[in-house]
Every structure is written in structure tokens, then in C-alpha cells.
Amino acid sequence: MIYLHGVMKMKYQTMKTRSSPGYATLLGLALLIAAPWELAQTSRAAAKPEGATPVKIMTSFYPMHIATLNVTKEIPGVEVLNLAKPQTGCLHDYQMTTDDMTHLLGATVFVVNGAGMESFLDKVVAERPALKIVRASEGVELIRGREGDNPHIWVSVSLHIRQVENIAAQLATADAAHADLYRKNAADYVARLEQLRQKMRDGLKDIQTRDIITFHEAFPYFAREFNLNIVAVIEREPGSQPSARELARTIGIVKKAKVKVLFAEPQYPSKAADAIARDSGGKVYTLDPGVTGPVKADAYIEIMENNLAELRRALNRPPAE
Ligand SMILES: [Zn+2]
Q1: Which domains does the chain have, with CATH numbers?
Q2: d(CA 120, CA 100)
């Protein structure tokens, strides 16, 4: 594996909240203000039955949000909101904002990927011991990366099925009144994910080359599942702008590698991708790790179907010499 060490780390532009007045005071303030449950753009408010206490589920980021929308589908009195804004992407260096903490105050359950993706989780647990945490990656064996355990589990369809089952089982415990509905929804969604997995296995069986270069270390679980070989990772987070120096280094890596098929995230600026392709002799395609996208239940399946089509386009050609 070739790594471009540390040159392309994204700096998330989020408010820091760790300075004074400190979380405890902020929490107190938030309680006093009793801020309304907002984030309308990512909410799916369900009809509340008379007399029942609504269950407010907060998810940490996009793939957990989509999975939870499926597990809670059409359950009355259950509301699902997402903590990070839809364009945030991965949460590797995410800093909680005061708004985030306020929103969490209204939640009963917090659904997280775990495996180190939510670096702020310990803080949340310490500040809000009563909040029930649902850990989607519980029991999943992690792939060890250069910087520790790789948290991009949901990118493997098989492991995402496991996550959906984990979410449903833990929601059923946290909110026993709806236990059967969570389990039924999960079973329905898992059946669809199994179909998707079969379609992808079939579609990737006969590709002519299996060697790829990716831009972000999001794909080891995906590659293992579909028998692809990641020969280099140009380490960067989706959404960051490459500098001229970074571009030059990337071009250098591709020139040295025999593999000429590069997969950038959809968020990668197309001008930079074009420059890399032009100057390295490689060709840039899109592979979507599913960290941003439309807020709808079918989004994960659609993203993976698009990935399948793109992989077939890119890899149904003999390897470059
Ligand atoms: Zn990531």
C-alpha cells in the first residue's frame, strides 16, 4: 500500500465548544432555554398517538441516519433526526457544536456507528449518562488501518446488514413498546440489502481488473467484500480542496503505480480529478462511500447501485501495462 501521509487531511469548519464556559454550563443554559427541536431539513416527524410519549432518536451522521430511517419506518410516535449536517461527511475530526449538544438534550436514544468514528462519544456519554447509546458496529471485527481501527464499516453491504440488525435489536431494548416494529422493519430492509449484495456480487464477478486506487480510506471493507484490490490510498477526506502541491504528489503516485483506475468521492472537485487524469495517464471515476446524500430511506441502496454501475464501467477493461 502507498500512502500520502498526512498531507490531505480535511479541516472541518465546525465551532469548537471545549473552551469556557464549558459543557456543564452550556448544558445548563440549553436546559433553561429549552430550544425547540429543529433541524427540520433532516427530520421525519411521525404522527404522535394520543397520550404516548414520543421517542426521539438522534443519529450521528448520514449512513446511520439512512439505516435508522429504515428501521423506524412508519412507526407512530418515533422521530429521527441527524446530528451532523447532511454535507458533513465522515466525523473523524468532528467537533460538537453547542447546537449539537442542545439537540442531543431532547433525544432519548443516540444511534452511532462506533468503532471510533464519533470521536466525541465519550464526552457525550459523560455529559448525558441517561442517553441510551445504540452502537451499530457492536461485535464487528475491525480492519486495522495505519491510524488505528478503520471505522468505515457501513461501506460493506454485509457489515451494513449487521449494523441494521444491531440498530434494530438495541432500539428494541431501548424502546420496548415498539420492539416488534423495529424487528419487522429491519427484517424487510435486510432482505432488500441481501438482494443488493447478490446483485453486486453477480455484477462484479467477471470484471477484467480488480486493482484500484482510492482517495480516502473508506473502502477496505467494501473491497474485501467484493474482492477488489486497493493498491494505493491517496489519503484525504471528501470535500477538501487539494493544493497544487497535493495534486502534484497525487499525480506522482499514479504515475508510479501500474494501476491507472482511480476512484474519487463524488465530493472531489472535478477540475482536480481532470488534472490528475490528464497528467498521470490515469482515469478518474467516482466511488461513493455513502457519507452524504439525499435524506430518504432508499438512499444507501441507490448509492451502492450507482457504485456497481461505475465499477463495471471502470474495471471492464484489461489492466494497463
Ligand atoms: Zn472517512
Answers
A1: 2-6+207-315 (3.40.50.1980), 31-40+50-199 (3.40.50.1980)
A2: 11
